[in-house]
């Protein structure tokens, strides 16, 4: 179509207006899509929150297939999600870099809940509740605990972030049975749970335990114990574990020091899953960590546990961890002593060992990192156990098995492993931290 010079300015103006109108339509559509996406995200968040409030354990466990599909995205986003700007001190330990360099950590305690990694990364503990200050170390009546005690705090139905007024040694008469959505935060004081019963996490979810000395735990039981404001019941004999996780999910055990217990230091059994055990110091114990109830309890096939940045120190014998059925990511830990073996298992667990440092004992018959608890060798040849980037010292060796199935190891992957050469730095502050007000922790 020919346009005369006289009409050219008018024609140009019409073209520009049409172009701007097209842009506006596109922008409107994009805004609509974004608004719809935001609405859906908000609804998803709301649904997630409602699910937590209406928690039933059988519905809360993530399908290992679904978790595996999210791992790559989680690893990619983890650093950005936890970035604290000028607070980040760059030690290389992503949990510690998330919060430890903030001089005002005491005013920002709940930031810790944003710092979990691994399969227990969604454990929020008592983040959405009030602070509760433990002022009384006594445990005189496990059925009617006194306000101000640790037992009174952990049994409440509402979310709580539990802290301590001063240094204390808490000797529990019976198991400390925790309710859902609780954080026990021992930072800034010296808190020991010792010389009596210890911690039981049973049929609950969203628990964070941080900064406690847990040791010399003893069998207790054959007694009434309260587990919520509205319920108490008869407890049979407890084994004397430091921390017993039973039928629970979304659990994070971080920066504790554990030793000298009657049974395990940490046991997770009976369908427990979505667990991270990180930055702990284990010492002076025989059977350190059991993950999986029994060879016949197949419900533990849902289990996914991350064991990372821990120091397995002096006086340890075996089970670091000992696994059954599920998927276990053992990554960037420091093993400086074992007498029998470090990592073992039965009942076809998948074990993904990455970037660990294994220092074998002097005993020439105990150099092997791994132990399969079976009889004929062919029973375990198909189990998926691998060592990737591990540092083997003093003759240590890892016996792999399986065919390297990518799908199985994806379900046993929860974070990006760092070089084993960095393990000394990553685990240098394992165990209870010395934190003071107004100073970087």
UniProtKB/TrEMBL annotation:
Stretches for region Disordered: 34-59
Gene3D superfamilies documented for this protein: Single-stranded right-handed beta-helix, Pectin lyase-like
Organism placement in taxonomy: Eukaryota, Viridiplantae, Streptophyta, Embryophyta, Tracheophyta
Domain Pectate lyase as annotated: residue spans: 167-364
InterPro entries assigned: AmbAllergen, Pec_lyase, Pectin_lyas_fold, Pectin_lyase_fold/virulence, PEL
Family indicated by similarity: Belongs to the polysaccharide lyase 1 family.
Annotated GO MF terms: metal ion binding; pectate lyase activity
Reaction(s) this enzyme catalyzes, per UniProt: Eliminative cleavage of (1->4)-alpha-D-galacturonan to give oligosaccharides with 4-deoxy-alpha-D-galact-4-enuronosyl groups at their non-reducing ends
Annotated protein name in UniProt: Pectate lyase
UniProt keyword list: Calcium, Lyase, Metal-binding, Signal
E.C. number: 4.2.2.2
Note accompanying the cofactor annotation: Binds 1 Ca(2+) ion. Required for its activity.
Species this chain originates from: Abeliophyllum distichum
Pathway(s) annotated for this protein in UniProt: Glycan metabolism; pectin degradation; 2-dehydro-3-deoxy-D-gluconate from pectin: step 2/5
KW Calcium (keyword) present: yes
Top EC class of this enzyme: lyase
Signal peptide: 1-24
Family annotation (Pfam families): Pectate_lyase_4
Sequence ranges of Basic and acidic residues compositional bias: 46-59
Cofactor (UniProt): Ca(2+)
PANTHER family xref list: PECTATE LYASE 18-RELATED, PECTATE LYASE 20-RELATED
Keyword Lyase among record annotations: yes
Biased composition (Polar residues): 35-45
SUPFAM superfamilies: Pectin lyase-like (SSF51126)
């Amino acid at each position: 179509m020919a346009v005369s010079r006289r009409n050219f300015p008018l024609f140009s103006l019409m073209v520009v207006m049409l172009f701007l109108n097209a842009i506006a339509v596109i922008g409107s559509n994009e805004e609509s899509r974004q608004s719809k996406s935001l609405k859906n995200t908000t609804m998803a968040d709301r649904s997630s929150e409602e699910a937590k409030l209406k928690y039933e354990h059988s519905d809360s466990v993530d399908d290992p297939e679904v978790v595996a599909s999210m791992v790559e995205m989680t690893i990619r986003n983890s650093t950005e999600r936890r970035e604290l700007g000028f607070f980040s001190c760059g030690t290389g330990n992503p949990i510690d870099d998330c919060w430890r360099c903030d001089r005002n950590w005491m005013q920002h305690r709940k930031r810790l809940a944003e710092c979990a990694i691994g399969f227990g990364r969604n454990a929020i503990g008592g983040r959405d509740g009030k602070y509760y200050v433990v002022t009384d170390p006594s445990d005189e009546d496990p059925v009617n605990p006194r306000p101000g005690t640790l037992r009174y705090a952990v049994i409440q139905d509402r979310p709580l972030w539990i802290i301590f007024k001063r240094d204390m040694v808490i000797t529990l008469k019976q198991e400390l049975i925790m309710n859902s959505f609780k954080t026990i935060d021992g930072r800034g004081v010296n808190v020991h749970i010792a010389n009596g019963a210890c911690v039981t996490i049973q049929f609950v979810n969203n628990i964070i335990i941080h900064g406690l000395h847990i040791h010399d735990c003893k069998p207790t039981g054959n007694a009434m114990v309260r587990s919520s404001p509205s319920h108490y019941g008869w407890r049979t004999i407890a084994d004397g574990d430091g921390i017993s996780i039973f039928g629970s999910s979304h659990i994070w055990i971080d920066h504790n020091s554990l030793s000298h217990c009657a049974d395990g230091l940490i046991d997770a059994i009976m369908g427990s899953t979505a667990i991270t055990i990180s930055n702990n110091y284990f010492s002076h114990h025989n059977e350190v960590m059991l993950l999986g109830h029994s060879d016949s309890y197949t419900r533990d096939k849902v289990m996914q546990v991350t064991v990372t940045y821990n120091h397995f120190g002096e006086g340890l014998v075996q089970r670091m961890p000992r696994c059954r059925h599920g998927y276990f990511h053992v990554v960037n830990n420091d093993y400086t002593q074992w007498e029998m073996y470090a990592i073992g298992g039965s009942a076809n667990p998948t074990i993904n060992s990455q970037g660990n440092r294994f220092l074998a004992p002097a005993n020439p018959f105990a150099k092997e990192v791994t132990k399969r608890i079976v009889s004929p060798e062919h029973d375990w040849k198909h189990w998926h156990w691998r060592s990737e980037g591990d540092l083997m010292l003093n003759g240590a060796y890892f016996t792999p098995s399986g065919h390297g199935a990518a799908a199985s190891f994806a379900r046993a992957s929860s974070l990006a492993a760092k070089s084993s050469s960095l393990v000394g730095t990553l685990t240098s502050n394992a165990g209870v931290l010395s934190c003071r007000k107004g100073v970087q922790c």
